[in-house]
Design brief:
With about 110 residues, the chain is mainly α. The protein has six helices and two strands; from the N terminus they run αααααββα. Helix content is about 60%, strand content about 10%. A hairpin with a 5-residue loop joins β1 and β2. The longest helix has 20 residues.
Length: about 110
């Protein structure tokens, strides 16, 4: 019973429902690169992101974009009419997360054996 109440509390507290913890998504592979590309407006459309980061697969990009949007680090908007074109923009929450991820990345690079 306590676990169900805790889970319900996490759902209603505004935390990311997928991770229960926004920090969880920030540790995932490619997250920093995707957020940084969107923040700098270098890459804010699906194929632009794929071209910017050659090792990133379309499947993983789709997963990360959905996770980032669900956790409100980015938001999507449909551009124009006709064929569906989606543009992603970073949110204030996403901007606040960038230094955290960069610091973690710098620490890992410095202390990796």
């Amino acid at each position: 019973m306590i676990r169900a109440e805790q889970a319900a509390g996490a759902q209603t507290s505004g935390m990311c429902p997928m991770e229960r913890d926004d920090v969880g998504i920030l540790r995932k592979k490619w997250t920093y690169h995707i957020l940084q590309g969107i923040a700098e407006s270098r890459a804010n459309r699906f194929n632009q992101i794929l071209r910017t980061y050659p090792g990133l697969s379309p499947r993983l990009l789709t997963i990360r974009l959905r996770e980032l949007e669900r956790c409100q680090f980015i938001r999507s908007s449909v551009i124009g009419r006709g064929p569906r074109r989606v543009r992603w923009d970073i949110t204030e929450k996403g901007k606040d997360a960038l230094p955290v991820i960069e610091g973690y990345s710098n620490f890992a690079s410095k202390w990796a054996s």
